[in-house]
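User: Fold this; tokens only.

Assistant: Input:
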Amino acid sequence: MAKIVLIGAGSHKFARRLITDILSYTELRDCTITLMDIDKERLELTASFARKFVTQNRFNTKIEATTNRREALEGANYVINTILVGGETSKINREITTKRWINEGDTVGPLGVFYGSRHVPVILDICHDMEELCPDAWFLNYANPMAIICWAVSDYTRIKNVGLCHSVQHTSSDLAKYIGVPYEEISYWVAGINHMAWFLEFKWRGENAYPLLTQKFNNSANYEGRPDAHYGYPDVVRAEIFKAFGYFVTESSLHMSTYVPYFRKMNRPELFTKYKIRIYDPKPKENEKINQDEELRQLVNSDYQFPIIHSGEYGSIIIHSIETGIPARINANVKNKGLITNLLEGSCVEVPCLVDKKGITPCYVGNLPPQVAALNRTNINVQEMAVRGIVEKDKNKILQSILLDPLTGSLLTIDETREMVNELFKAGAEYVKGYK
């Protein structure tokens, strides 16, 4: 049976979800799940949950845990990547960008590019290990910056790979709630790039639902902080993008506000109020993480029965379809080999994919509507230069990638951007050694 490796298993909130998803399928319960993380304490907490979950349900699943990556990868069929490199550096980087009104984002922009500078080298090392130890395995990436990572893996390794995100599932659920219909009655066709993919079709009972969504969005109360949609946050930015460009985008309003130059203006705090954009504060997340650790420990050491509920994440759906041959359709990040014809060939695009016994087959999309393709290109420009800069360890290409970022360019001069980039290099010095 399949060996499924989870790299970065110490992030137990997500690992717990993935493990539950995998074992929600009867056909996968004889598999081996190997958990790997460099943090032994957090790894053991995840492993304790996994063992208890298996024991409670009398599954035949074999649970392994190790801090040795090569040991984990030996003979793997699927490698799921959820690593986070340099958490403390991320906080310092946010302080550097926040004082320049560039705040959120782990996809593009200065924060995304420097996330990539920390993640890409480690992930390429993982994939090179896979080339030796499990060359036929699928690499399922959940780490950000998604497009930069997948682009690098596709160009610089021989490993089969796909990038997975939950923005399509979450946004489709949001849209069903916004128009007030059951989720199972809607259908959609989504394509673009990660965190900026577009609902090219949005249907309710087989009919175009965009007119209904437009009608609903004429009243801002339908999207400003409804507790049952979009995590309960105001969705003003995405509403504005929809009204201006005609298609609904997949990523949250908070992140979308950093991918374009329209919403965050230096010395104009009234725009943050108008568009309901909050400023990032790392303290609640730190406290939440501590509380989550303690909560899981208590649950593992109690009589609590962990439920078997599938979260909708694509990772387990892919594994189930390949192992059983039962087909599924997902949205995933793959190399653009003629899939979206008006985006850069060879870039990383997010498109519908068919999954079955043969693996993952991306679907042809053709041309995106020109206005949304243009928005995608502004972010692809950043991603392309970032990949080259990271792999070649070229400081100037890293600077150029950030100069191409739409939000940064709207806020800072070239000299101001260079000053910020130098600060970011200094803050993450231990992760950017060897750059010239």
